């Protein structure tokens, strides 16, 4: 660099002057000469402080991950570093996820990291992530847990660049954030069931709690925006645990959680197979979508209610992770996770003209984190006495999902 050559030339002149004058210099000049020589050598051999701004903005190279390593098989280990951000340093945390603000006193849940067996999962790097998605549009398609995931990524990326909110709908379900320095757009597309669905109403126009969904149609709330999307993170699960009649066009296939006469009963994991099969078929056959569209399936995120459900006094008061021997590998969540992945694997066997598919297999990872939910610390004045054991505190273990996401996107590039 030019600056280095200037310092090097100056150092040569200084050394010649020192050599020629050393013999006749008076003793009191020796300290001055030593200091001069020290700073000359420092400037020559130390990295130049006048390097260009563009040099400084080059992201730190990320460690390579062995492609044969299963990122989602491992355990949680203590990590004294804690989160990259705090509940007060990120201005976009919604009140319902700001557990510390609402009185959570323990902090141990913040000091764990996920350690895959046989390799390391790099710590999230917001500078490198934004560089990787420069000029892209990323959409989180799903329910409020998908929104939770997006909010985690928003906080992590805000450590590098402050995002600008450019859209928010009246019900605060769909939001769009923009990172102008990187031309990166991050959004949520809220949907109950991924496919088209609606609740049946009675004669008084009151909801009955029974839903109809149609596998032949996608929910327009997210599908209409898919052609403009570069990276979609797809997830929806918790809304399926209710009475749902499943149709495919004019054909009725059966029902989840309802004992209607002459109706085939469908288990939740079988229902997930039908929905996710239809979902991936739609994405893979999308003619108007970008040829290099990346679709990432995020598997079901478990809840941790104990001693009841959300409306019967259930809570999640634990303050430490579970070990693998403490979780139920035969749980409904694990069965649904398997159903989701099976449908994704069915798609990835085909050739879909450049479209790419991947999985964030977080179910088992998060079954080990009963300590990561808001529980009673979610500040909902309309639902006092009810606990939230479905969503995740920010900061918290959900931040690991974005370490997974970064690793997966890098592998797909």
- Give a quick account of the main beta sheet: strands, pairing sense, barrel closure: 7 strands, mixed
- As for the CATH topology of the largest domain, it is Rossmann fold
Spans of at least 5 consecutive residues with low confidence: 1-58
CATH class category name of the largest domain: Alpha Beta
Count of domain modules: 2
The CATH superfamily of the largest domain turns out to be SGNH hydrolase
Tell me what the structure shows.
With 413 residues, the chain is of the alpha/beta class. The protein folds into 2 domains: 2-54; 63-412, 3-Layer(aba) Sandwich (Rossmann fold), CATH 3.40.50. Helices cover 28% and strands 19% of the residues. The protein is built from 10 helices and 13 strands. It has helices spanning 2-21, 30-45, 53-56, 126-132, 144-157, 220-223, 268-284, 332-348, 363-367, 400-412, and strands at 74-78, 112-116, 137-142, 164-168, 175-179, 184-190, 195-201, 207-218, 231-234, 244-248, 251-256, 294-298, 356-360. Strands 4-5-6-3-9-12-13 form a 7-stranded mixed beta sheet, sandwiched between helices. Strand 4 and strand 5 (175-179) form a beta hairpin. Helix 1 (2-21) runs antiparallel to helix 2 and helix 7 packs parallel to helix 8 (332-348). The radius of gyration is 27 Å and the shape is globular. The protein starts with a helix and ends with a helix. The chain crosses the membrane at residues 28-45. This is BnaA02g29190D protein.
Concise summary:
It contains 10 helices and 13 strands. The protein has 413 residues and is of the alpha/beta class. Strand 5 and strand 6 form a beta hairpin.
